[in-house]
Amino acid sequence: MSLQFFKKSFFLWLFFVIIQFGSCKKNDQNGDKPQPAKSLAIENIVMNGKVLASGYYDVNIRSYIILKFSGAISRTSVNGNITIKDQQGKLVPVSFNFENGDSIISIKTNPLTFLNRYTVSISSSVQSTEQVNFDSEKDFIFATSIDSSRKFPLITDSALLDTVQKRTFKYFWDYAHPVSGLARERSNATPEIVTTGGSGFGIMALIVGIERGFITKAQGLARLQTIVAFLKNKASEFHGAFPHWMNGSTGAVIPFSTDDNGADLVETSYLMMGLLTARQYFTGTGASETALRNDINSLWNGVEWNWFRQNNQDVLYWHWSPTANWAINQKIRGWNECLITYVLAASSSTHAITKDVYDKGWAGDGAIKNGNDYFGYRLPLGTDFGGPLFFEQYSFMGINPVKLSDRYADYQLQTKNHTLINYTYCRTNPKNYFGYSDSVWGLTASDIKGGYTASSPTNDQGFIAPTAAISSIAYAPAQSMAALKFYYYVLGDRLFKEYGFTDAFSLDVIKNNGAWFADSYLAIDQGPIIVMIENYRTKLLWNLFMSCPEVQNGLGKLGFSGF
């Protein structure tokens, strides 16, 4: 073998090696050879065929979840690192199925529970088959649907109204204070606290109870005698007005707040509305009914309405304290729940106010007017969207708004349109609270999770109060009945309990961190339910209260017509 041949062979070999090396580098640069994954991410989560964004509502309790990752997953890293928990933090048993080269995980569970909040969590400890960790911890939240099955047997609408009235009546009959007979403030407060305004509503409820056969007239009369005797002989009063809260055994004031330890004129007006209604009902000539009427007249004539003008101003003041005098300094101005206060103050035979006090104090010489349209409904009075619905309920438990008007408003239109604005707001649901619908509506003052608030379209925190829609039945019967039926048949015994519907609820399991149902009852919310249902059915309380000659005189004095 010659040296020349050897050199030639060597250079051919070297050329081949260089070509091969260069080719390998080029292949590497072009990615022809797979490289280890640098990250592991989730591409999407699919639930029941839809891509899941956190906050997915109304999920079927029989569901499946598919997780699609950017690479193959190590099966041993999944258990304990991909979990589902309910709103109490309890782990949901799951099983996993791996697909598409282990880059897709299907999750199966047993049927979930209705109206529950669930969190799918993916830990950073999840690894790919190449031992690359998941890029970050991720949580995806979803909520299951309402159980739409009927919880109570279907009955006629008339029987349903009977059922609701009878159960609600129990709050004022069974749960009344055993000494005074007055209505306890709420079911979850100190049982000695009775409420003046709520007791006025309760007196009206007693009359419904008699007429509906829940109790006899003799029983109702005996309870009224107990109440009136307590008010006359034991209850604290200041210039004829009663405090917001009292001790149901002794009649002593229980302060509502630091300086609210004396007269509450608005609460007193609700009490007087109830008492006058009872006076018009118990018209018998016997000694018992005659004495009852006389005692009611004594209480009614003792209220010094005009004294609450605070030195003859053209406005009424809400509070007076024996220790702080007028320190709260709250003028009673409209539009709100206090129309009845001015009507009764004008109606008094002993301490009446003049029309100027109504026009300047309550109506602000027309400042009370609104006149704007909301959702296509003209609102005669009040703030934007009307405020909470109790504005159209408390005073109108006795005052009949049908055909009633004055220089400021048509009150039939006011009560109806405010109700329909509230209804349409909830149905439209601009804040996207789960559960709001044409059958779940009604914003008013009520308990909410962790507190109490006056809910309205401008203060909507996702809590619905049954009293709001149900007590609007005289104004919007179709919408109110739809809500009542949903609350009774669908929400069932989660909401309808010992004394009727509990105070409020939220179905928004995500925004409010779990479906919430109040366990409380409030006198001022239970009262309008039974009374306004009756006004819708028979106009009983409207007819009684409006038959008072003093009220007829007061309405006329203030410039009302149509009554």
From TrEMBL:
Record keyword DNA-binding present: no
Ranges where the SbsA Ig-like domain occurs: 54-144
UniProt protein name: Beta-glucosidase
Alphabetized InterPro entries for the sequence: Glycoamylase-like_cons_dom, SbsA_Ig
Domain of life of the source: Bacteria
Organism: Niabella ginsenosidivorans
Pfam families found in the cross-reference section: Big_5, Glycoamylase
Keywords assigned: Signal
Sequence ranges assigned to domain Glycoamylase-like in this UniProt record: 331-549
